Amino acid sequence: MIAKKTNLSAHDAASIPRGDNYSVGIAVAEWNPTITNALLEAAVSTLEINGVKKENIRIDYVPGTFELSFAAKLMLNDDSLDAIIVLGCVIQGETRHFDFICQGISQGITDLNIEGKKPVIFGVLTTGTMQQALDRAGGKHGNKGDEAAVTALKMIKFNKSILRY
Q: How far apart are CA 88 and CA 101, in angstroms?
């Protein structure tokens, strides 16, 4: 449970690696664009603030959150990219559709991380209401896009350090 008035996107700036030589792909779901565009804007801003050049950020759109696994799999074939971030939003409805989409994207991204040689970062909101999504897309609980970008920078650094061995 998220504590009230907690900004989950607070970071220690000194712990974020510089991304001056990094290249990041971002796959964004078009569904729930108010949310996904806010996630994208925060992710790009955080990457740029931390040194990733604008020309080293590739953005691709897919219709919905379920399609993000496929997009990430294809983007992993781009040798110029050091990591992939997937951004989406699934809001609970009255049917089990929510459960199937959330399970599918979670498992899909997990599988890509297990099989791949580059990190795929999970920046997908799975919320009960639109208000909860707004709160996590730049509202009182921070922005999951920002968190995903920080995670990408940290995982690229980690991956590069492991590959040196």
A: 11
